[in-house]
Amino acid sequence: LGASQVEPRTLAMLHGLLHQLHVSCTHLVAGARGLPGRVQETAGQVRHGVEDVRASLSRAHTFHELPSLVLAQSRETVARAQLSVDELLEYVGQHAPVPWLVGPFAPALVEYPEDVPVEMAKWEGCVTV
Asked: Do the record's keywords include ATP-binding (predicted)?
């Protein structure tokens, strides 16, 4: 890569990462429904912070177009978002019921007539109750 290609590729990578982060935050907000209002509000703040950073950085085509204040504010916003996500994970880990974390679960029960031999090799490693 030539020096002239590094900056545009780095900015493109940054835009892609911010897009992925925005999508993840949107899923986070949707997943927080049903949790206490404070938790939903925190998830919403994280998403809005990411949207602000994304909007600030999306217009730049070079790093020289980004004022140092915008970069500093973006860095602070991302750091706050990370702390908020850590708090959310801690709350969910301590308070959320297990079905909320893994979804509804019902093991498939298979019954075989007693006179039909079951090939046990395919059930190796399964736990029977």
From this structure: no
> 68, 70, 64, 31: which is closest to 47 by C-alpha?
31
37 lies in some domain: yes
- CATH code of the domain in which 65 resides: 1.20.120.340
> Would the pTM of this model clear 0.70, i.e. be above it?
no
- Reading phi first (left if > 0) and then psi (alpha if -120 to 50, else beta), residue 124 is in beta
Is the residue at 83 inside a domain?
A: yes
128 within a domain of the structure (yes/no): no
Identify whether 10 is part of a domain: yes
What string of pLDDT tens digits covers the 129 residues of the chain? 566 788 888 888 888 888 998 998 898 888 888 888 888 899 999 999 999 989 888 878 888 888 888 888 888 998 999 899 898 888 877 876 655 555 555 555 555 555 555 555 555 555 544
